[in-house]
Every structure is written in C-alpha cells, then in structure tokens.
Amino acid sequence: MHREKFIERLLLLLALSSIGSLALITIFIFLEGFPLILSAGLKNFILSSHWAPTKGHFGILAMIISSILVTLGAMVLGVPLGLACAIVLAEFSPRRLKMVLKPTLELLAGIPSVVYGFLGVIWLVPPIRTYLGGPGLSLLAGSIILGIMILPTVISISIDALSAVPDLYRDGSLALGATRWQTVRRVVLPAASSGIITAIILGMGRAIGETMAVIMVAGNALQIPTSVLDPVRTLTSNIALELGYAAGRHREALFATGIVLFIIIMILNLSATLLTRRR
Amino acid sequence: MPHPAQAPIRPRGSSPTHLVGRRGVVLVWVVFLAGLLAAGGCESSPQGASRPLCIAGSTSVQPFAEKLAEIYMHRHSGTRIDVQGGGSSAGLYAVSHGAADLGAASRELLGEEKKLIEIPIAYDGIAVIVHPSNPLTDIGLAEIRQIFSGAVRNWGALRLPPHAIHLITREEGSGTREAFEHLVMNKTEITPAALVQDSNGSVREIVAGDPYALGYISAGLVDHRVKTLAIDGVLPARENIKNQTYKLVRRFLLVARTAPTGPRQAFLDFVLGPNGQKILEKEGLVGVK
Fold this sequence. Notes:
heterodimer, A: 279 residues, 13 helices, B: 289 residues, alpha/beta
C-alpha cells in the first residue's frame, strides 16, 4: 500500500515538473522579450516592417505577414491532399492496404525537417528559379515544403476522426440507397467535421512553428512579399537565423519575436482544444 | 436517434496539444538554453591556479581563435583557453572591464577603445562573388553600394543582358555583414529585398547555383564554383589583401588592456609565430607576418 502511494506521488511530481518547465519557459520568454516591446512600443514592434535590430529598428510586421502567408500556402496545398488521402484510407481502401499505408504516412512525420529543407533546396528551388523566375528561394518553395510536412499530421488525425464515425451511420445511409461517395460526403464527413477541423488547425500549428526547412528554402528576405516568387522570412526563421550572434537589445527583440509566435501558437492550440470539446 | 451531422464525434487517440505543443516547446527550449548560455561569461569560470585564458569578441574571429586555441592547448596541456563570441564591441567592452583576458575584434578600434593595446593577427578579404557564367569581371565599389542599397536592381545597369539581380546578404549580427556594411555601405542600409543566409557556405552555395546571383563571402572560402569579381580593377589576391590595395579588407585583432605577460604573451607568441600564422593561412586568412 505504501509502495502504491509512493508511485502515485512520484508520477504526480513528474507530471507537475513537465508543466512546471512549460511555466518557466513562458515566464522566461516574457521576462526577456517584454521589456523590448515596452521600450520600442507595441506599435513600432508589430506594425512596422523595418527590422534592423543593431541600428535600433525592431519592426516585425513583414515577418508576421510572411509567417501567415507561408502557412496559408501550406494549407492550400496540404489540406486537400491530406484530406483526400485520409478519406481514401479510411473509407475506400481494404483493411490490409490501410494497415500498410497509414504507418508509412506516419513515417513522413519522423523525417527531420533539415532533410525536407535539403530536398527543397536541391529539387524544388532550381526549377522554380528556372521556370517561374525570381531567385527560387521563395514563399512558394516554403509553402510547398510545409504543405508536404503537414501531411502526416492532417492525414493521421483526419483518419482517426473518420474512423470514429460509427458504422451504424454508414449502414443507415447505404440502406437508404445512397452510394458510397454520397455516404462519405453527406454523412461521414459532416459527422467527423470537428475532428477534421482540429486536424487542419494542428497542421497550421505545425506549419507556423516549422523553422529549419523554411530557413533553407524561403530566402529570409525582410520585405513584405508582393508575389509568391518573392523570398520571405518567417517569425521562427528570424529567431533561429539571428540568435547565434545576437546580444543586448537585439537578443531581447528575438525573444519578443518569440512572444508573438507563442501567442499565435497558443491561440491555435486553444481553438483546437475547444473544437474537439464542442458538443 | 440523433442526426449524424450533429453527433459529437471525437477523433480517437489524437491529442490536440501534442503536435503543435512539441514544435513550439522545442523552439522555446532552444531560445531558453541559448539565453542561459549567453548569460554565462568569463567570470563564471572557476578561479584558481589553472585559471583558463579567456578570449571574447568577434564572431568572425571566433572559429579561427578556437582553432588556434585547440592546437595551442594540445601542445601545452597545462593551459586552458576559453573562446567566446558576442561580437567585436562586446569583446572590447569585456577586455576594457577586465572580464576577458583578450578581446577579439574584426573591425578597427573606435574612440575610447583606442586606449587598448591592439595586436593584428591576420587580414581577411571580403570577396564579391557571382556565378561563373556571369560575364562580369570587374565592379566598382560605388556600384556595389548602389546594388546592395536597392537603387540598382538589374544587371542591365552594368551593361549586361537585362535580368533582375538576385542579391544575397548575411544576417544581422554577422561579423562579415558588419564589415561589409562598414567597408562598402557607408551608413546606407542593405535593401530588405535581399536574400539572407546565415553562413558564408550557404551564400556560396546559392551563388554557385544561380546565374543571376550576387553575394559576398570571406575571401578564404571562395572556391571554383563561384567567380570572384575584381573591385575597381583589383582582385582579392593574397598580396593585394596584405598591402590593402584591395578595398574590402578587414584586420583581425586580438586586444589586451595591459601589456600582455605570462600565459597571454605565450599564446600571442604562438599566434604570431610561424605555426600560428601557418594555421591562419591554412584556414583561408592572410597572415600579418
């Protein structure tokens, strides 16, 4: 009995320590970054796109816009592909095929992002430069790479949502004379919609938080892009790119960039949690 | 029986926080750890009989200083040398306040800093590079400034077939960028439309693959896949860098507050001696001796 209690306590302590480290991280980034937002002014920070931290300009508007655009691009490419894949695997493929394909797709998630970035630099950037113009390292390249990288997230959560729809619904619909596609479109998809939306939001979170691959293929220029062929710098790229040499106010500005990213990811996470809880 | 569309279906086995959370947390941890590292300093090293020699400063000098320190420590097993980055200004500040034994600077000393003792250890040229297929061989310093400030955006302005120039620069805080801004830009800012890469290697990689690219890297790191431009007719050859007829040259300095003695002097003797200079030349710099 004593042993039982001890193990319970130990597990509780371990669980609390992980929450504790999250709390510490939050406090730390806010302590490090907030003074800069205060001294530079919130307006100069998020509504200006003049970033020259060693000369006292800390505007991250271009990066916020770029982060959003790259993520949207990834959604446009990744969501239809991922959803189609999930529907095929969950509804139209034999059990055995699904048992092979699903783990394979999940393997995609295990590939390090630097590998995606490298493949992007080698296979994606040169054709964009040659056939579409611009320097190749671009918003488009970043979106395509991220679109592929979010596939495992979107697919596996969508499959789970689709499989959670009781067979009773499918049987009922088929018995009423609907075809299989009609059943999927009119019955299964609506029933699984909250799970699918969660999958999309989590995919967005993955895309906006991705760093290495984006640094390698997106070009990291500081401007607000006017075309998909323009190079862009995302919030995460900004932190990773400049952290190595940053000191003083420059370093604070990178933490402040982290605060903005933190808030965006929190909002995405919260909305995903709320949607799955929705009755 | 409820209508299917309104039925609450929760995806099995998916936890909404784990994927996004992990991403975010990893990044945040990196930031966190970097913060801890940056908070440390020379002073935190253990004091005592075998106090390590602390060199702090320019991130451009850092890799070379690390190499020198590594070989020096290998030969003199009793000595420990800590090499830290932080930038030229931070290094000079640390030396003048006694927080570091030697400062490393990749720029000339300014104002108050001139009271410190400077020991030049090497020259580094900054090469302006293009794709080998680019017919351009020579460019003016003023032209480079116009291009990097964003005033000139087309190769046509340099009497070449018209095509947009794909500019590549280094990230804010990089020593090479700092030197380039100081030597070329003359207070004008580099255009935000320029691509930004975080190492000499990746700038070279892009220029090697893009016929319309223009970038700058440390002269020692130029290889056959890119073409170096002469600036106002002078190529960054070894001799031209040494006698500074090539315009884009910076000196790498070690800086001390007082006349170096003991282990500091021993290390400086090594750096300026034939072995140290040979190491620097092998790493792509031009020695001072």
